[in-house]
Amino acid sequence: MKELYSSIYKRRSVRNYDADVKLSDEELAEAEAYLGELKPLIPELKVQFEIVPREQTNCRFNAQYCLLVYGEQGNLWLTNIGYMLEQWDLFLASRNIGVCWFGMGKPEQKERDGLSYAIMLCFGKAKEQDFRTKAEDFNRNDVENIWSGLGDEKLGEIVRLAPSAVNSQPWRVEQVGKSFNVYRQKGSVPILSAQLFKRFNKIDMGIFLCYLDIALEECGYNFTRQLGTESDEGKRVLVATYTLD
Ligand SMILES: Cc1cc2nc3c(=O)[nH]c(=O)nc-3n(C[C@H](O)[C@H](O)[C@H](O)COP(=O)(O)O)c2cc1C
Asked: Residue 151: CB within 6 Å of ligand 1?
């Protein structure tokens, strides 16, 4: 996943697309093919994708297409989907294809081949100037607010740039020596129901783990990861424990 590193400083949610700029057939085919390359967090959980013209969805942005994501329900299934699709988001940024996660998507089909609808992402051809160029362009928490006991400044500066629903950044990391726990901090926002916000935050945690794995690779760490849970017990939820070699 290291090849996705440079896209971290480039990607942004693209919500406004220039109608004169379209994806070529080759670009669409490459985007679709990359879905088959995504690395899962939990290989046992089935995931399926469908690309449809955006007009067939309730997405209100003028993107050319939407990707509908369906998955097998199981522990951390939404986190797994966040982990996988963030790779796609970053890859498409490298091709000047803009993406926006669209949590408010309402699919016509809630089930498909026994899998449940998880999330929608809209995408379309964008221009170089639609993307970011530097870390200063991001509105994110400072690293001190998300990671205690951080042993490597660069690692923290990369992962803090991860996107999340309503920019809620629900991740908290606690490090002691070579081991750290990644938590989902529970919270609420006035504009979303508690149920929806919780669901999005589970996807956000997968996005964060994707950034974390890219950052660990970029910084030269080998690690083992033990996954936690997507359950809703307690004030914050242990999603993963990492141990650096
Ligand atoms: C799970 C998820 C759901 C999202 N849903 C929406 C949405 O429904 N509408 C929207 O405009 N943006 C949505 N976003 C985009 C976030 O608002 C955006 O990623 C965040 O504000 C950070 O901004 P950036 O992506 O430009 O870095 C969503 C993001 C995630 C991760």
From this structure: no
